[in-house]
Design a protein that fits this description.
- With 211 residues, the chain is of the alpha/beta class.
- It is 42% helix and 29% strand.
- The protein contains five helices and eight strands; from the N terminus they run αββββββαββααα.
- The strands form two sheets. It has a four-stranded mixed β-sheet with strand order 1-6-7-5. It has a four-stranded mixed β-sheet with strand order 4-3-2-8.
- The longest helix is centred in the last third of the chain and has 25 residues.
- It is elongated.
Length: 211
């Protein structure tokens, strides 16, 4: 009987050690890079939602190629052990570098021994580093909502249409002067690029005028 009691106490001790001290486990960190897309077509936006009253914690909202047409966009985990960073620059593509640490069993023996604990791959922490182009804007969801309303205003639309046409016209004239033999295909590319440049500049100006 004493042997069974001893074994029982040892098994309890092992379970407690696994539950509270992660006995038989080790921290494993994985890294992956995830391509991201803007949430709002026509503007390169990375959105975030502030959590709590101190506004220090943020959940970032974005899309990936796989969720480009999904009803709901992706978002970072709302967890105190999740750290989000944003870097802007001349990156080849916009993406997230995600570093995730989890508890995993050291080998099959420990996995078998504590299989009832159901704590394999337990989340420890995560760091999300967003690397986006300098032409992107980082806005809160409330700012994005205000921007959306501003872009739907008829006066704003009329002004952007007029200013945009003038901007494109001036850029095309400059390029034609520099390259008089420009083909229709080249001209169309210049127009497309100029329109995108004006759109980005106009949206940034609207954001700067927000109160």
């Amino acid at each position: 009987m004493s042997v069974f009691i001893a074994l029982f106490l040892i098994s309890i001790g092992l379970l407690v050690g696994n539950e509270y001290g992660h006995l038989g486990m080790e921290k494993v960190t994985t890294n992956k890079t995830i391509a991201i897309q803007t949430v709002k077509k026509g503007s390169n936006l990375l959105l975030y939602k502030q959590l709590g009253t101190n506004s220090k914690e943020k959940v970032y909202v974005y899309r990936t190629p796989d969720t480009a047409k999904a009803k709901k966009p992706d978002n970072t985990k709302a967890d105190i052990n999740v750290t989000n960073k944003v870097k802007q620059g001349n990156f080849d593509s916009s993406h997230i570098k995600q570093e995730t640490t989890r508890w995993e069993y050291k080998n099959g023996f420990y996995s078998f021994l504590f299989n009832l604990s159901n704590n394999d791959h337990e989340f420890v922490k995560q760091t999300n580093t967003f690397e986006i182009g300098s032409d992107w804007m980082v806005l809160s969801t409330s700012q994005a909502s205000k921007l959306d309303k501003m872009l739907k205003d008829k006066d704003v639309q009329a002004k952007m249409k007029s200013e945009g046409a003038d901007y494109v016209k001036s850029i095309v004239a400059q390029e034609m002067k520099a390259n008089p033999s420009m083909s229709e295909t080249q001209r169309a590319e210049v127009v497309k690029q100029a329109q995108a440049e004006y759109q980005a500049s106009a949206v940034k100006k609207l954001v700067g005028n927000m109160k």
